[in-house]
Design a protein that fits this description.
The chain is an alpha/beta fold and 252 residues long. It has one domain: Beta-carbonic Anhydrase, Chain A (3-Layer(aba) Sandwich), CATH 3.40.1050.10. It is 44% helix and 13% strand. The protein has a 5-stranded mixed β-sheet with strand order 2-1-3-4-5, with helices on one face. The longest helix has 23 residues. The two termini are 38 Å apart. The N terminus is likely disordered. The structure holds zinc ion. The site of zinc ion (ZN) has 7 residues, from helix 5. Zinc ion (ZN) binds next to helix 5.
């Protein structure tokens, strides 16, 4: 407890208190207007999709990717698949964490047998920012989820990346992805050894922080390997052209 208090005090000193929640407020939309938008869009979806479209997966799903990503509205599967329907088994929570979702991830791996478990962080993740700051005023539920996230970020809280918070923030995003991948590698080791599963850690970059294009999927970890030079030769990336590898891997 004392250690935690000290950590929070220290992070407040270093990074200042984060007014995290206020940054997420949007212009006021009433519940009635919000629901109307959903029902209207669904109506046009029904009109534009016939029975034929649904037939292939009426009785079973066939995903190739189990995806663990943040709940953030800016991160959506259309960035990964032309049509993600029946392709992605999606698990979402704040900060793309395994600890809060083990049963769902197990289901994707053990029951749906997806060959990829993709842990997808993203630039400007509010949960990572919150976990880098003092979040003691949040609700019990939020605190509980952020506590798991706080753990892999502790070294950054104690020693931020200079005065550049953007860099500390991105380091935090990467550190969290790498932590979640390591957890997954430990949980699903036998499947990885058999070549049935690869755990891929990536950052969805919609602010072009890596300079590889807005909306780029940047791969930073495969089965626990984070060295871009070694990732180039990873069997998991063997179907990618040299050009594609250049686009998805970080050059440091
Ligand atoms: Zn987030």
């Amino acid at each position: 407890m004392l250690k935690k208090l000290l950590t929070v005090a220290l992070s407040t000193l270093i990074l200042g208190t984060g007014a995290v929640a206020s940054e997420h407020s949007t212009e006021k939309v009433s519940p009635a207007d919000a629901l109307k938008e959903v029902v209207e869009w669904n109506n046009s979806f029904v009109k534009s999709h016939s029975e034929e479209y649904f037939k292939p997966y009426m009785n079973a799903q066939h995903p190739t990717v189990t995806l663990v990503t943040c709940s953030d509205a800016r991160v959506q599967t259309m960035a990964l698949f032309k049509d993600p329907v029946d392709k992605v088994f999606v698990i979402r929570n704040i900060g793309n964490q395994l600890a809060n979702a083990r049963g769902s991830v197990d289901y994707g791996i053990y029951h749906l047998h997806t060959p990829i478990l993709l842990i997808l962080g993203y630039t400007h993740c509010g949960a990572v920012k919150a976990a880098l700051h003092n979040y003691s005023n949040e609700t019990e539920g939020i605190k509980e989820e952020l506590d798991h996230l706080h753990l892999p970020l502790l070294p950054l809280v104690r020693c931020p990346s200079g005065n550049n918070f953007e860099k500390t923030w991105l380091d935090g995003v990467e550190r969290n992805v790498n932590y979640q991948v390591q957890e997954a590698v430990n949980f699903y080791k036998p499947f990885i050894k058999e070549g049935r599963l690869a755990v891929v850690g990536a950052v969805y970059d919609f602010i072009n922080a890596y300079g590889k294009g807005y909306g780029r999927l940047v791969i930073i970890n495969v089965n626990g390997e984070t060295d871009p030079k070694k990732l180039e030769n990873s069997p998991v990336l063997k179907e990618l052209s040299e050009q594609m590898k250049k686009e998805v891997l970080v050059t440091r």
